[in-house]
Amino acid sequence: MVKIAVFASGNGSNFEKLVQAKDKNYSIELLIVDQEDAFALDRAKNLGIRSKFINPKNFTSKSEYEKNIFSILKEYSIEYIVLAGYMRIISSELLRNFEKKIINIHPSYLPEFPGRDSIGDVFRSKNSQTGITIHYVDEGIDTGEIIYQERIDINPLWNKEELTNKIHEREHIVYPEVLKSLFDRSINI
Ligand code: GAR
User: Fold this and answer.
1) How confident is the model over 140-167, as pLDDT tens digits?
2) How many angstroms is it from 171 CA to the middle of ligand 1?
3) Cβ(11) to ligand 1 under 6 A?
4) Ligand 1 nearest-atom number relative to CA 118
5) Could you give the CA distance from residue 158 to residue 44 in angstroms, rounded to a whole number?
6) Which of 9, 78, 121, 137 could form a disulfide with 5 if both were Cys (CB 3.0 to 4.6 A apart)?
7) Going by DSSP bridges, is the β-strand pair 146-153/129-136 parallel, antiparallel, or unpaired?
């Protein structure tokens, strides 16, 4: 069973779905958040998952912040980092220690609409399609190797909230499924 730490910054709905999927191929050992008021912390408490708020402001540099995270990950023998709405760029400290072992979900069909407010950008574009992407994290912004992506048709009558809900609905189904097959050691040897 692959030991995972999930990183989040806010709501944590994807984190919750990953936990609830209760897959035999992976186990979520830990939630790490960078925001004290992240609702993901409440979810972790209710789900019985260990969680830690690590305040980036308590460190002199990003590298020191990530070194601290790395020491915690080692303590819990974490093998993979799964980002679920973690709104911070991962830098070399974690990237070199978790090479091709950091996974992200992004709410657009990359390389279309990278960045922080993809859903808003897609909504304002008036495009007829968007999508979701699960990818490995590299040093770029939303540029790493794509593991899975799918298209979502946009109903022109949707408001931004309805578009957001549709994207989340698909993310909640797809993220656990993709991790499940990625970590299925009987097929990925
Ligand atoms: C998700 O839609 C995820 O794709 C997005 O943040 C949301 C988090 O929702 N991630 C990014 O935009 C990363 N660039 P959640 O906290 O309810 O899981």
Assistant:
1) 999 999 999 999 999 999 999 999 999 9
2) 9
3) yes
4) 12
5) 32
6) 78
7) antiparallel
